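Incident log entry.

Two folding requests arrived from the same account within the same minute. Monitoring flagged them as a possible duplicate submission, but the sequences differ. Recording both here for audit purposes.

Request one:
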Amino acid sequence: MKSRLAAVTAAALLLVGSAACAPPEKESGGEQTQSGVKAGEATSAQDFGGMDGLIEAAKKEGELNVIALPPDWANYGNIIKTFEDKYGIKVNSAQPNASSQEEINAATQQKGKSTAPDVFDLGQSVALANTSMFAPYRVATFDDIPAAFKDREGTWVNDYGGYMSIGYDSAKVPEVTSVDDLLKPEFRGKVALNGDPTQAGAAYSGVLMVALSQGGSVDDIAPGVEFFRKLNQAGNFLPVDPTPATIESGQTPVVIDWNYLNAAQSQKLPSWRVFVPPEYPVAGYYYQAINKDAPHPAAARLWQEFLFSDEGQNLFAAGGVRPARADNMMTDGTLDQAAAATLPVIDGPVTVPSPDQTEKATAYLAEHWAGAVG
């Protein structure tokens, strides 16, 4: 499962590997496009003379570097395979369980190398703190993406989202009908959170969901931290980063995570249930962006075109996530109906934190989280 949690060991191994056998430098910006700018400066497919020109340039590069994209997260396994098959471009998928911050760290550490990430898939707080590293690019379907889901220049664009949930193994714990159930003795040593909320978008949203259930708000996440303090004191909080393996083995029988990730586990574990608290729905979208120093700049731009095409958006929907273009595709009749039927429907208002609210909450977590669960 894509933890979005710092993995110090993996980062250390990456640095050691880089020192032992440094990958070759890549020419900055790629080749010149039809419009006269380098591929790394192209702001739309028109700079390549249209999609055919972009496809040709991307195929010439032949590779794409992605990072922090587990195959069972948002259907990325099928998305990557479909992209490879469609364009004949090899996708190098590094550190699938890396955090959003580790994506940025990898781009910084490997800048100028052929192994640097070409594209990012980031939680809100990390994305908005690092926009200077992104290359503006407007995909062909840009105007079809709601204004709230994109930077107007295409520096970042939301690709998919979902709702925060509690997944649990009904064969190992009682039915979960509220957040407060997690404090019961039956949940001792069983409740895991997907990541560190100071670095991971999923974990931050989990704490926010809990905060709302405890009388807090998107502007006051303190009650959420206090709940996890009580959970830890009761011995119910399990400081283990959940993965499909830990869920299947029974090591993490309760997981606070995005609904689409929890729902995916039901296919492997029939007793796995997913609960989205109806009174406290928290929604969140991930941020897609191009590394301005991408070693494969044309392939990076083709990847964006693919993700935001009808085909790419329907592949996201098949993974149980809500594509950014879902509403417009429903209106146009281009959203896969079978996939759309599996997306959760929440009646009433949904909490979606603004960038400023996320920044303030993350600052509070940075100061108080470790003391609560340490």
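Request two (distinct sequence, not a duplicate):
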Amino acid sequence: MSAINLLKELLKASEKAANIARVCRQNQRLFSLLVQEKEKDESNSRFDHDFKTLADCLIQEMIKYDIGKQFPELRDNIRGEENAKFTNTMGESVIVTVTDYPENTIQVLEKILNGDKEAASALVDEVYRDVELDTDALELPTDSIPLDNNWSELGIWIDPIDGTAEYIKGEEKLTKFPNIAAAGLKCCTVLIGVYETCQGTPILGVINQPFADKVSDQDQEFQEKYSGKIYWGMSIGDLKFNNIAPHEPDARIAILSPSEQSKYVDFIRNQLKYDVIYSSGAGYKILKIATGEAELFLLSKGSTYKWDTCAPQAILRSMNGDLFNLQDTLINKSVKKISYQDRKVTRNMGGLIAYQNIDKLREFLKL
């Protein structure tokens, strides 16, 4: 069993996901058909209105299909954020599925898209496209890395588009630090994380940022073109690999949610002397800790889920950092890592705190 083979398939799936996200976003007529409000039982309590898009559902089912086809023993352990049910403008409920037969997928998408075969075909082309990876650019390890686990002892969490609200609005807002966005498409990420089911420990993570860089402004079709970036990390036993270059931040930065409680903001700003900035997307914020562009991520509310954190936590662990339960860490003064052992618990109830450097976490606890 090779961890590199699994990582390659995750990277390919993430890039196909990014392509689907870009295709859906570039066609305004198509995009208006793709957005739907979630049912109450599947929405996030943070939002008065929580939305999913066809891109979310299609990406999730595509990743399940691709990874499950390559690793059949893993298939039943692949889970994601979205319910695959989508309702078209006629009120007809359709289950988004990806199978061995592209024509079946086209038929499903046509129903959702009110019979628009051209749009359905364009999306299906991306779902079944063969993606080539530049393994040199991605800095993949050349040696084989064995996995101690059987495939059936691994689980995968997918967040097909983390930051769906930003994906829908698309309004770019920057912070005073040029490499960190406050809101908009830059905050959207595709998250795929692998964990050991027995210990609940994340071991492989891929974060794909589909809209990392704008390569052209609006053209005659009112389309903006973007290119993406892919980040990955692996932490298996004592072996740790990733493709993230060391980075010295411009300042001592804490990255927080815009809705963070003022008592935490004041403490971080006044007692810890951090430069506080606000940004959207849990995956994006934790990514900025991994890249070293921010030092501290803290979220006091239990408003994230395992699909938000599995991939970025695996990347942090590959850098000797980690993601911790904030309330346990503060109350018990014991460093309790986020775990994926209990399949029934999907919410990170105690909030989060992330550092790339564990010594910095210990300094935080002393205060």
